[in-house]
Amino acid sequence: MDASDSAPARGGATPFVDYPASAALPGWREAGSGWPLLLLHGWSVNGDAFLGQAALAESGYRVIAPDHAGHGLSRLRGSPAASIASLAADTAALIQHLNLRDVIIVGWSMGAMVAWELMRSEPGLPLAAIGAIDMTPRLVAGPDWPHGLYGRYDAVQADQMAARIRKDWRRLAPSVAAGLWADGRQPDAGLVARVEAMNDQCDAVALAALWEDMARQDFRETLRAATLPLFHLYGERSRLYAPAVGRATLALRPDAGFATIADTGHSPHMERPQAFNAALVALCDQASTR
Questions:
Q1: Which of 46, 45, 10 is nearest to 31 (CA)?
Q2: What is the CATH number of the domain that holds 220?
Q3: How many CB atoms lie within 10 A of CB 156?
Q4: Which range marks the domain in which residue 198 is found?
Q5: Per-residue b/e over 237-269, b at no fewer than 16 CB within 10 Å?
Q6: Which of 156, 152, 96 has its CA nearest to residue 126?
Q7: Region 129-154: what's the mean pLDDT?
């Protein structure tokens, strides 16, 4: 990895300010005061995954990164009933609490499902566009959708994974984290340490419930019927989703924006934040014209 494109450490040149969770709201972090850009993290990490995007505050954005229930600042809000719908409800409550308007929501991995659920179940929210980072609308593959996780994931494997999470999440976490990075490349040691710290701040019960619920989701019709501008960013060398996943997802809504970040895997925003940020800003600009 080129050191010039690595993410800043916590408390870098453009630091986030943290806000604790409450009974009614998830915890969140934010930087800047411009156009609201709400970043939704993936499964088993937290909003610190977007440290490299805090720099977008200098480009006219109010960057907001909440922590989902069972994760990071919101770890104690986790429960066995955690679901994509409950995370979406939390996000909607935060948007209303902060009185945000014309919000661009960008979800990474599980966070993309949360963003799509918001579009489906909260049509009254003042959203401007929905973006997704390296995600499929259906995690489980099937005859009509060979574009799930690894291209072959099924419901039985999802149940087995949930059982392993409940049994010993700490032992499982390193193998999960290894899937974040570009195929054939060793990640920066600092990134590995950041992900380990985020994994340690998760509640295994909530993680298992969310994994099971992700396996039940199918957002293909939601994307086809979307009235908001959509866009997608994919890692060129993702270990989780082959290039065909991005093409198939784009085909559901061909007018959506699309970008591939070279030399990155499932976490392009962490692996090459500067390149990712440039692509994200371009897609946000395109979405604003639609």
A1: 10
A2: 3.40.50.1820
A3: 10
A4: 3-289
A5: bbbbbeeebbebbbebbeebbbbbbebbbbbbb
A6: 96
A7: 96
